[in-house]
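Re-run with default settings, no changes from the original entry. Doing this only to confirm the output is reproducible before filing.
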Amino acid sequence: MQSSMMSMPLTISSLIEHAARYHGETEVISVETDGTVATSNWSRIESDARKLSAVLSSLHVSSDACCATVAWNNKRHLQIYFGVAAGGRVCHTINPRLFPEQIEYIVNHAADEVVFFDKTFTPLVRALKDKLQTVKHYIFMGESDDEVKTAIPEVLFYDELLASASDDYIWPALDENTPSSLCYTSGTTGHPKGVLYTHRTTVLHSIGGNQPDGLAISAKDTVLPVVPMFHVNAWGVPYIAAAVGCRMVLPGPGLDGDSLVRLIDGYGVSLALGVPTIWIGLLAALEKTGSKVPSLKRTVVGGSALPTSMLQDFRDNYQVDSIHAWGMTETSPLGTINQPLFKHLELPEAEYEHVRLGQGRPLYGIELRLVDDDGVQVAEDGESHGRLQTRGLWVVSQYYKASESALSEDGWFDTGDVATIDNDGYLIIRDRSKDMIKSGGEWISSVELENIAMSHPSIAQAAAIAAAHKQWDERPVMIVVRHENAELREDELLQFFDNKIASWQKPDAVIFVDALPLGGTGKVLKTRLREQYGRHLL
């Protein structure tokens, strides 16, 4: 039987065209690298994206080339997202917080032909450019700048290039399976691995990730993606924002708490998204400034576990709903979001809060399962632990330029997490498999220990690691950062664990430090902590 329905490709050009046509006057506010604020709108973003695509063609950049960005969240970066991908090329966002050697590897592995960069990263680009084997053009994201020209004589200037281009460029008709963007894992062990997304997976992620029980962004929202655009495409928010035509505030390089308070209050931000370390800074700034951020209704927290104290602080003091999410580079990245079911609304506050602390339910388009070390499926009863595996409409099947599949024999991707799933599909990440602490043959979750420590009013940050032990093989040790001016002794924090966890799971020691080492995506580098403190108990 022949279908009677239209068939249209799912392409990124359709997202930005929709935004320009139906939400053209909606503002896109951009904090520039120098701290000034520029106001654009969806119509001008689309127009400049077309100009950019025409410029790349005039520079003889290959029609399917990878084009790298080393940039903050700003309007030019947003234009590049659409101008590169909608023109058939691949937008390759690079995390500048990685080691220079990793960035060198990533650019050469991707065979990037263009590097777009903000002024902050001029020294990095200058130091690496002689080692980058395939780059034809270095494009500074701004006006003509003598300082940048001196550092990189062959540089081209983004604003000059667009000023000479026409916006009558017509987007090419692309197959929806055409690659659109490329992100690399953070590479904590070995070389980073590339995940190549397509137009189809990106559009499906934009639709599936924005269900009412997903991010639920609408045209009424003013959205502040604090999560960097160089980190898994800012969790897909730029594409979702175009699909719904919401107002956007792009924060530039100022991600400290004071700067975020000014943006939220100054532009009436209703939804902000970022990792827990960002919200720790914001909450400290709110306490200092006295602002109640009345416009802010929701924060989405991902990257690592949402501490109980953070959920309570946002809720009780600012009437802000903190929404926990889980995902990874390999899942584009949204996998689950913690939105309640109807039956949860009648729960006592403590039980309701417990439900909200997990990573939530899978979005439509994502499936989850738990397996043991032999690959046998584990019960989803909320208690049984297993290795978390996933498959879905926007999940990786093979890493970029890898010869082997990234999937199990029956087609599932192993996330490296240890988790539980309950009867309603609610996921709780118990730990990364490599971070679990095995004491006397029994497992202890570092995440659970960290959540307890973080609920103490004197603790700003906490990490639990396995330390070698003569009798029990491994025992937990807490490495913690106290709030400024807080006075807390080791015995006081250890006593705080009483009646919150089994006595044999209590940490053996507490080490107070000034700061925890963070990786390029804001996660604590536990490998470094284990190297430094792993023999503390011997």
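The first strand starts at residue 27 and ends at 31. DSSP finds 17 helices and 25 strands in the chain.
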